[in-house]
TrEMBL record:
The lineage of its organism: Bacteria, Pseudomonadati, Pseudomonadota, Gammaproteobacteria, Pseudomonadales. Signal peptide: none annotated. Pfam families: NTP_transf_3. Residues 13-167 form the MobA-like NTP transferase domain. This is Molybdenum cofactor guanylyltransferase.
Amino acid sequence: MTSHTDLPPCSILLLAGGRGQRMGGRDKGLIEWQGQPLIAHLHRLTRDLSDDLIISCNRNREQYAPYADQLVQDESTDFPGPLAGIRAGLAAARHSHLLVLPCDVPRLDSQLLDAMRQASRQHPDKPLMLRHGEHWEPLLCIIPRALLGAFEDAWQNGERSPGRIMRGLGAQALQCPADDPRLANLNTPELLSQHHGVSECP
């Protein structure tokens, strides 16, 4: 199997700019799981994959800075959703493709990220999204930076769903098992606890 050292460079965007509603308004990326902030788990997983590691964050920038090569934030301060972070990441990316990951999936592994990058090479002009069963995961994706204009046009026309944009652009799917534990979305204190995490927050 192709290793990540054989793949072309990509920029990586870690999404940590949300309101944290399911976490009681706390900054999700800084909530601890297994003794470290969630963002630290994704940083450790991705650091060796790119020289352009971007974090989308809208608060606590000084705490996120050690985990990134660059920080981006939404244009507005009202937490307009993940598409805003993706737009900012695409605009800042230094490589031809942007691998996007949310901060609350700390059980991802390098094999899955390598598989995503390898699959995206089959149609390098199209977005790629993970899918498990019939469910798309639009925040686990690879987007060609050349599609920035299409994302901007969709945003200006009122679209706020990155999944709808990518499907409209002919997105590829990388199929995962329906119950793939690597895709566990630990976005509530209860889920963090169930997955043997610590739900305390700075």
